[in-house]
Amino acid sequence: MASSNHKRTARRPTSREPASIRRLEGAYYLIWATPPGESTPFEVSKEVAGPLQPLCASSPFCPDERIPRLRGRSQGDPGRPNRTRIASVLEYERNPRFQGPSTCPYRFRTKEECYRDINVKAMTQALFSQEEIATVSNFLRALGYQVEAEKIPESQIDGTRILKMHGQIYNFHETRFEPGPRRMVLCMIRSSVET
Prior knowledge:
Largest sheet: 5 strands, antiparallel
Helix content: 10-25%
């Protein structure tokens, strides 16, 4: 007598509705690295390279926001004491007729939209991805740093938060630019004064 060794398969649902797929929210990471024997951590991010708004040659200014002026200054020529030469310098002045973005290649209606876009692009380039966080954290731990990673969900990168390295840097800030793994340049900043 032959035995039947076949597996039972589950029946598929007969519903014709498409399955709903939920996208997992992405996240980026910011590293806080404290040197050995110290208590103030560095904010660690990656170098931002390349233009953030390649369609706009005058970014972060609007194309018609500034007026170029060629200024000349006479300088003595050290090789010829009786002659002077004119050194030309290109300077930009604020355009008094500027009313807001009108010729924007990105079609921003306000300067705030432009700045928010720049901030989002700078933040996503500077923060570490899921793949990079382990490598960079291990690299910094090997150098003796105590490392903590701050997870920043993609939905929170809306242009309102600015990394310390992208803000104003004062004389009380300590900054370091260190070569990191995978040819990254690590940008490290901390403040001795709380701002």
